[in-house]
Amino acid sequence: MPSGDEPHAGLDEQTRWLLAVRDRRDRQAFARLFDFYGPRLRAMLARLGCTGAAVDDVIQDALLRVWQKAGQFDPAQASASAWIFRIARNRYIDIVRRDTRPMPDALAVEPPPEPDPGEVLALQAEGARLRAALAELPKEQRRMVEMAYLGELSHREIAEETGLPLGTVKSRIRLALERLRYHLKEHKPP
Amino acid sequence: MTIRHHLPARLIRAYAAGSLPKSFATVVAAHISLCDECRAQLAAEEFAAGAVLDSLPPLYEPGDERLREALLARLDGAPHLPDEAPPAPMGIFPGPVVQALGGRPPRWRRLGGGIRQEILARDARGSVRLLHIPPGTAVPEHSHSGLELTLVLAGSFGDATGHYGAGDVEVADEGLAHAPVAGPGAPCICLAATDAPLRFRPLIPRLLQPLMRI
Ligand SMILES: [Zn+2]
Predict the structure, then answer these.
(1) B21: domain CATH number?
(2) Is residue B76 within 8 angstroms of chain A, CB to CB?
(3) pTM of the entire structure?
(4) Which end of chain B offers a freer environment for a tag, N or C, measured as fewer CB atoms within 10 Å?
(5) Does B52 touch chain A (CB under 8 A)?
(6) What 3-state class would DSSP assign to B112?
């Protein structure tokens, strides 16, 4: 468990960088986020068949929004990577597909300013286990999981439920769901 | 609101990945607006998508350094942005529906049999509409060459697959022929998305087809 004076102990690097941006507008931490996510977002866009100048536009625009929206990041509700993924995917749909994405209503309740460190660490641990489970997948299965999450599935493939995450990956996602469901219930107005 | 029929995980996953056509994404966003369980499920699918992103082999480019400097130069003076959210809900219509309506009440058009509709959006990848079905009225039996998603916003309907009340979603897969009937008491108002033309069984509803423009 974290001690009181080390609030970010036990968090992965990406989350610590994003919290430094959120809490201190730390430009060096932001540059690290760019160095980590820029080339990964490029890999994601390449899989979507996105090339040329649009790639740099999406990367730059997405990460600028990470800076602009950092105040809303709550590590008990999302991992840094999930939060950045969501921003980047919306920027891709906006810039490349020239469309807007229907978004659900915001929850009526604001997240608490200081979330329970236990909840944050529990979600972080699920993230580490999920990445380990992904790394252990046979190449072909891993490719299927990537297709399902990076938006490469055709409509027919979605309807036919191909690309379904299997085995350990699926059970890790279910455990993350339990954490997130608990967090949502705890912070809902009665 | 007690919701018994939820979105299947594969649709929430495809919504998270951004690969759903807009018609279906509207229904998914509208249901999640009403359903905490599917909201948590979406957070879990996005959590998984983030882990996949973290695990991707990075693709470096010689221009990365320049891109980073250009981005750092834009930080000062970039205003804080609020979270992306649709307009506020209006009565029975959650924000994503209000957005599709352009912020105004529905402009119902008669379809015959007392059924009314407004087509909210239609493109090559599908259509999404609001339907207003009087109590006890049957929608003509039809089948699909693709997927049909129906979210109940008020009232209820039932067909061979079950009973659907406010907040419930019916997922009608390819080939399912069904004839939904609105429940008694109140009109059934629902949001329905299809990705392919519906095929109506009896002769008379075929006459309806050009009217419904599906
Ligand atoms: Zn649900």
Answers:
(1) 2.60.120.10
(2) no
(3) 0.91
(4) N
(5) yes
(6) strand
Q: In terms of residue numbers, what domain contains A117? A: 113-190
C-alpha count within 13 angstroms, C-beta hemisphere, residue A31: 10
> Any chain A CB within 8 A of the CB of B86?
yes
For residue B124, which of B41, B23, B2 has the smallest C-alpha distance? B23
* CB B75, CB A67: distance < 8 Å: yes
Asked whether B149 and B170 are in contact (CB, 8 A), the reply is: yes
**Domain at A71, CATH number:** 1.10.1740.10
Q: State the pLDDT confidence band at B157, using cuts at 50, 70 and 90.
A: very high
Q: What is the 3-state composition of chain A as percent helix, strand, coil, each rounded to the nearest 5?
A: 65, 0, 35
Q: What residues of B are in contact with residue A159 (Cβ under 8 Å)?
A: 146-147, 173-174
The whole-angstrom separation of Cα B34 and Cα A84 is 25
Q: Which of chain A's residues have a Cβ under 8 Å away from the Cβ of B148? A: none
Q: Which domain holds residue B187?
A: 1-81+92-214
Q: Per-residue DSSP letters for A62-116?
A: HHHHHHHHGGG--TTT--HHHHHHHHHHHHHHHHTS------PPPPSSPPPSS--
pLDDT band at residue B7 using 50, 70 and 90 as cut-offs: very high
Instruction: Please give, one letter per residue, the 3-state secondary structure of B131-196.
Output: EEECCCCECCCEEECCCEEEEEEECCEEECCEEECCCCEEEECCCCCECCEECCCCCEEEEEEECC
Contacts of A68 in chain B (CB under 8 A): 78-81
Q: ipTM score of the complex?
A: 0.91
Task: Name the residue with tokens 């920027």.
Answer: A91
Phi, psi of A181 (to 5 degrees): -65, -45
